[in-house]
Design brief:
Its EC number is 7.4.2.10. Its main location: membrane. InterPro entries: AAA+_ATPase, ABC_transp_ATP-bind, ABC_transporter-like_ATP-bd, ABC_transporter-like_CS, Oligopep_ABC_C, P-loop_NTPase. The protein is of the alpha/beta class. The chain has an 8-stranded mixed β-sheet, with helices on both faces. The chain has a 6-stranded mixed β-sheet with strand order 6-7-8-3-9-10, sandwiched between helices. It is globular. It has 21 helices and 23 strands. Helix 4 (116-127) crosses helix 5 (132-145), helix 4 (116-127) runs parallel beside helix 7 (164-176) and helix 16 packs across helix 17. It folds into 2 domains: 6-263, P-loop containing nucleotide triphosphate hydrolases (Rossmann fold), CATH 3.40.50; 287-523 and 556-584, P-loop containing nucleotide triphosphate hydrolases (Rossmann fold).
Length: 586
């Protein structure tokens, strides 16, 4: 019998806090064969990411200690080695070449001061004997492989110039650059829209077929597990509770915990809330909103702009959720920042609670900021690393609430309990929370000043399905209690269906289809909406794997010469309240 590529036995990982030691992983054992994909699933804090970081001994940099176990890595033609016993110089030689990792949060894996091209090229320069020019040429090919449009331009950009989904694709390109034997993928498609996710999963499968590459795939998306996994390892509280081939696990899960995990998975078609009454005046009115970002001058010194948002109009009422969907770079997050006045529009108008906010300075805008709060896409980047959890949650109260420190701490404790974080975590710092726990901190912070509107930018994308279900229920309960309105920005169509009264579909900065959720998602009229829906992963491993989606290279560029005026794109009403961009109708 052929030895597995990776054989983990009895892994124990501990963290020390003062004199106390906490076990995050408790005697975990599993193996991965060449060309096999093993999915590691479980709730946030179950030990999935700790396991991934331990295999490359990166957990030691985060205060963790591998207190027991072995991880034998057996490449063809080479003697097996225990990764936990290797000297650092030999381990560094393996990292990035034989074993590579895609991290959950791309901004923590990317250097903000280096261009995208230089960061991908660095992998070639470290592990292969190539010239700087050849390394850059290969980097551009990898950018093309992960379906980033305009690869030559991306090569020269910095991570901060890219959307969250684009940054994740760069991180994936870095990980795949040296064609590793083992790819450890920690939530690699969390930040990606469904079409790009489908392309990335197919890219990973292609490399597996070509190289015999093994994949340890850590995810909370059971649709992705059904799509890509051969076997599934289920973790709870640091222990393995179940392991089975993917079809067997979905068809007949043995453990109660596994059954609960699968039952919490949102499925497209489960139903949506009915549209709210339109009698009340909108809390938010957006008219003809456009945003253009200048970019470096091109050939012959011609100035150009990225048309990030183009002529966007919609309204949002108390107690209503408008889901905003579309691919990475479609303008969703920029729209969210515009309506919150985190950036100023190039054209158009935003009325917040009956007041036009264009032209308001920071002092004039401050009272209105309590009415509109944002939950950001990247929880780690939006949390101050030197503040304790109660200080992070109560930051808005310090500005708007007029409460003293003790009152803010008490409010923070109550809010953390509401989003599933015990008050025993009040004094922890951001790095001591898992990715999903950090996102819950962000949700608690947004709720602290009892706003009227919340812009939720991928607010549950980092959460495992069971915690996600609880948080979505919490958001809906708060909406019923307080009449909260949500602009819910997401790439998860099943989640959007569950919470949204209406859905707006964005493509190239424009809304191309908008209407009641059931009408848009189950009777889509625009071809782009149909393409998005066709790419949604389904939590059913018996379905044919792999879905055909149009490559991103065919999407037109949003870059135009300065002064370019975009053509008007009228909308046509195709059903009550359901509007479609006229040029998309057939």
């Amino acid at each position: 019998m052929t030895a597995p590529l990776l054989d983990v036995q009895g892994l124990v990982v501990e963290f020390a806090r003062g004199q106390q030691r906490t076990q995050a992983v408790k005697g975990l054992s599993f193996s991965i064969g060449a060309g096999e994909t093993v999915a590691l699933v479980g709730e946030s804090g179950s030990g999935k990411s700790v396991t991934a970081f331990s295999l490359l001994r990166l957990i030691e940099n985060a205060g963790g200690v591998i207190a027991g176990g072995s991880a034998r890595f057996s490449r063809a033609g080479a003697d097996p080695v225990d990764l936990f016993q290797l000297p650092q110089d030999r381990l560094r030689a393996l990292r990035g070449k034989a074993i590579s990792m895609i991290f959950q949060e791309p901004m923590t894996a990317l250097n903000p001061l280096m261009t995208v091209g230089d960061q991908i090229a660095e992998a070639y320069r470290l592990h292969e004997d190539v010239s700087p020019a050849e390394a850059l040429a290969r980097a551009q090919k990898m950018i093309e492989a992960v379906r980033l449009p305009e690869p030559a331009r991306r090569l020269k950009q910095y991570p901060g110039e890219l959307s969250g989904g684009m940054r994740q694709r760069v991180a994936i390109a870095m990980a795949l650059a040296c064609r590793p034997a083992l790819l450890i993928a920690d939530e690699p498609t969390t930040a990606l829209d469904v079409t790009v996710q489908a392309e990335i999963l197919e890219l990973i499968r292609e490399m597996q077929r070509e190289l015999g590459m093994a994949v340890l795939f850590i995810t909370h998306d059971m649709g992705v597990v059904a799509e890509i996994a051969d076997r599934v390892v289920v973790m709870q509280a640091g222990r393995k509770v179940e392991e089975a081939p993917v079809r067997q696990l979905f068809a007949a899960p043995v453990e109660t915990y596994t059954r609960e995990l699968l039952a919490a998975v949102p499925r497209l078609g489960d139903g949506s809330p009915a549209p709210v009454a339109t009698d009340d005046a909108p809390l938010l009115e957006v008219s003809g909103l456009s945003k253009r970002f200048p970019i470096r001058k091109g050939w012959f010194g011609k100035a150009r702009n990225v048309h990030a948002v183009e002529q966007v109009s919609f309204s949002l009422r108390a107690g209503e959720t408008l889901g905003l969907v579309g691919e990475s770079g479609s303008g969703k997050s920029t729209t969210g920042r515009l309506v919150s006045k985190l950036i100023d529009p190039s054209e158009g108008r935003v009325r917040l609670c009956g007041r036009d906010i264009e032209g308001l300075n920071n002092r004039e805008m401050r009272p209105l900021r309590a009415d509109i709060q944002t939950i950001f896409q990247d929880p780690y980047a939006s949390l101050h690393p030197r503040l304790q959890a109660w200080e992070l949650v109560s930051e808005p109260l310090k500005l708007h609430g007029g409460l003293d420190a003790a009152e803010r701490r008490n409010r923070a404790a109550a809010l953390m309990e509401r989003v599933g974080l015990p008050s025993s975590m009040l004094e922890r710092y951001a790095h001591q929370f898992s990715g999903g726990q950090r996102q819950r901190l962000c949700i608690a912070r947004a709720l602290s000043v009892r706003p009227k509107i919340i812009v939720a930018d991928e607010s549950v994308s980092a959460l495992d399905v069971s915690v996600q279900a609880r948080v979505l229920d919490l958001l809906q309960d708060l909406q019923k209690e307080h009449g909260l309105a949500y602009l819910f920005i997401s790439h998860d169509m099943a989640v959007v269906e569950k919470v949204s009264h209406r859905v707006a579909v964005m493509y190239l900065g424009r809304i191309v289809e908008i209407g009641p959720t059931a009408s848009v998602l189950h009777q889509p009229r625009h071809p782009y909406t149909r393409r998005l829906l066709s790419a949604v992963p389904m939590p059913d491993p018996t379905r044919e794997r792999g879905r055909h989606v149009r490559p991103a290279s065919t999407i037109p560029s949003p870059v135009f010469a300065q002064g370019h005026r975009a053509a008007e794109m009228p909308m046509t009403e195709v059903a009550p309240g359901h509007f479609v961009q006229a040029d998309g109708l057939h």
